[in-house]
Amino acid sequence: MPSYQPLDATTPAGKRTIERILALRKKIKAEVPGKTLNETLLLATWNIREFDSPAYGKRMTEALYYIAEIISAFDLVAVQEIREDLSALDDLMKVLGDHWDYMFSDVTEGSQGNKERTAFIYDTRKVNPAGLVGEIVFPPLEKKITDING
After folding, report:
1. Per DSSP, which regions of the chain are E strands?
2. Which helix (H) or strand (E) covers residue 103, if one does?
3. Residue 146: what pLDDT?
């Protein structure tokens, strides 16, 4: 379960956040199969639009709590659009807690890549990466390739 230690239930913001986390937890419980350590493996993929991009700014801690609550319902989540700077992902991992870890791809280059990557966030009690990661990256062509014959 994520750590919500900094929440203060005596403040309006803290009370609101706690109420929303509890409502979110209820909704997740109704729609996502129950998570167990030995009998299930729950996988998800989530395209979080420009996770902490310079265009939209840093996410509020409250938003990280909601994201952590959703991710914690699964064992492995592939999260797309993680930005080049991993500080937001590191902040999310602090909320998720000690038994969570992540691996991530290289940043996609070029104008189409937006300096984004995919992160695989996983519960270390259930998922144990073997250590082998591979990918093929084709750099953008700078010259037009012409036929050798002409």
Report:
1. 43-51, 76-83, 100-104, 116-123
2. strand 100-104
3. 57
